[in-house]
Amino acid sequence: MSPKIQVLPLNYLCLNVISNQLIYALSDEEGKYYDVIEKYFSSATYEVLQDLLKIILNSVNLDASIRYACLEVLLREDVKKLDTGIFPQFYYRNILSTIALKGKRLQQLNLKGVWVRDYPEQLCSMIKRLKCLKTLVIPHMADDTVIEAILGLKRLTVLDICGEACYTVGGIGRLQSDTIRVLDIGNFGKIDLCQEELSGYELVAGLIEKLPNLTSIRTYSYTGSALWLLYDKNPKYKTKLSYLRDTGTTLDIMESIIKLCPGLESIHIDTPQRGVLEKLSDLKKLNSLKLVKANMEEVLNYLRVSGGQLQVLKLNHNKNVSLDLSQICLDVPNLQTLECFQMQLTFTNSSTYFMSLQNVELLYCDTSDHVLRYILTNSPFLKRIVVGCVVNMTDGDIFRLCAECDFRNLEELWFSCARCLTATSVELLMGHCPNLRVIGQLNGWDMHQDELDYLRAVIAATNTDLTLLPVGNFL
């Protein structure tokens, strides 16, 4: 049986009660309770204020005026984390002013929900006042003046300025820091960072040199080419990168990655040249691998040699050759996460077991119910399975699976297109799996709204911790 809903922690219940009272008090357009509320919260710890801000600012159904009023009242100088959530344009300037005035000791700031690129002066003024920032998330917003302001953040470790850039080559070239470890920059699939010429590999290579403690370059898809330029200039140069992404990887680029990134733990390679994957064995700390449009013969050869060190394997876009999952099972014994997108999947040896596998995603793959059954029955520690392919299993198949396996660790099961499964399968799963908390997507099953309503009523009446998705009407 799915687990019972535990009694919520007292602090969570208190936060809900207080947030509801706070929202009610600030619903007054005249703001006559502001002073009273500020005085009431003056003795509260900053952790309480952070939690209240998180709950209220991310309540998308709550009126923006009330959310902004809460930001004004709750943001105190000692608050360390702030995620603004989504606001309409009318509030952007005021939000920046409020954060600049009251958030002086913020360590983490996420402005992803507000499009403040139209207010560069206010954004720069705010950044200059937030001297304690360690994480700054401002995608699509940075220009040269913003980059200049970021240079004054001496504690910054995570910087997200990805997306469409407003900065120039000269502006981004000024970015220099001994503290930044994670940089999110550029656009997926685009070589150039900005509109000017020579704003691609060369610019990223310069950034790597100016950020000596960088461990991860996210979003940018051609980091390997930038490393090749550095290697060509100084073969003895070393980086601290533990993650990177590259596209169209050549043998020379792969050689530069190996030489310059001895501590690499995770790599994402798109369309590698023949022979590149064999060199992956030289990356002794690699434990996470994502490959797009790779030659399957080379993939399997690499896994036979070095698959034992991998915990995460993601394979995309290759339906030309079938992938034998039982061979993966043998070659990658420590695999915890397997993701396949647009692949052809089979298995030939049903006596092999994924003894470490916990998370599986199969999306738009050419596969069969036999493969799915193999994964479910031969992965004793499976926690989450997502299948975005056609599933032809029936209620009888689910019954037999439950009879054979206890699914003791299964927490989430998602079948997006399983037209032969009905409410009976939901009842079987919720009655058999002791830790199952999510079943979806039921709009792809043979179910009607009245059946879903009945099951949700049973779940509520029995205090069962199980969510059936989607939440709204679907048939």
Account of the 3D structure:
Among the domains are: 1-75, no CATH class; 77-220, Leucine-rich repeat, LRR (right-handed beta-alpha superhelix), CATH 3.80.10.10. Helix 3 (46-57) runs antiparallel to helix 4 (64-74), helix 9 packs across helix 10 and helix 10 (223-233) crosses helix 11 (251-260). It has helices spanning 10-25, 34-40, 46-57, 64-74, 92-102, 120-129, 144-150, 169-172, 201-210, 223-233, 251-260, 296-306, 325-331, 369-377, 395-404, 423-432, 449-461; strands at 81-83, 108-110, 135-137, 158-162, 182-186, 216-219, 243-247, 266-270, 288-292, 312-324, 337-346, 359-363, 384-390, 412-417, 438-440, 467-468. The protein is flat and about 65 Å long. It has 17 helices and 16 strands. 36% of the residues lie in helices and 18% in strands. It starts with 9 loop residues before the first helix and ends in a 7-residue tail after the last strand. With 475 residues, it is α/β, with parallel strands linked by helices. The strands form two sheets. A ten-stranded parallel β-sheet has the order 7-8-9-10-11-12-13-14-15-16. A six-stranded parallel β-sheet has the order 1-2-3-4-5-6.
